[in-house]
Specification:
About 20% of the residues lie in helices and about 25% in strands. It has helices at about 10-25, 70-80, and strands at about 50-55, 60, 85-90, 100-105, 120, 125-130. The protein has a three-stranded antiparallel β-sheet, with helices on one face. The N and C termini lie far apart (about 70 Å).
Length: about 140
């Protein structure tokens, strides 16, 4: 048996997301042909639990959209999906409508027109949090 060439992590995540999206659109049920095969979650389990797939022993999970969540809620959501907090940045909210909420995340929950992107479980998510400006709020 010939060994497969090394594939970058991001490409593996995109391939897994594509395969998973095809299975969900086609209405495939959870299946595992062999231990090395990909295991899919059922479409009914998507609402109750994070969407994850295991491929070649690596678990990939759907990246949640935490933009707009408070810091504690975002930390809980990421933990539920198997991700952790990375570097935290602060962005000034001049209108003062979103103080303490997540302004942006990296990696993003969606990439272009791909609604679900899977990343290796344990990936650290870099976040930007809205903070008070130096001037008084309007």
């Amino acid at each position: 048996m010939r060994a497969l060439p090394a594939v970058p992590r991001r490409l593996r995540a995109i391939v897994a997301a594509t395969a998973l999206g095809t299975a969900l659109i086609g209405g495939a049920q959870a299946a595992q042909a062999s231990p090395a095969a990909t295991a899919f979650t059922t479409a009914s389990a998507v609402a109750a639990a994070p969407l994850c797939v295991t491929q070649n022993g690596i678990r990939y999970c759907e990246m949640p959209d935490i933009v707009g969540q408070r810091l504690g809620e975002a930390r809980t959501t990421l933990g539920t999906y198997g991700f952790g907090f990375g570097v935290q940045h602060f962005v000034i909210d001049h209108i003062c409508n979103h103080i303490g909420e997540v302004a942006r995340q990296k990696p993003a929950a969606t990439v272009g027109s791909v609604p679900r992107v899977l990343y290796p479980a344990g990936t650290s998510v870099e976040i930007w949090i809205w903070q008070l400006p130096s001037h008084p709020c309007p």
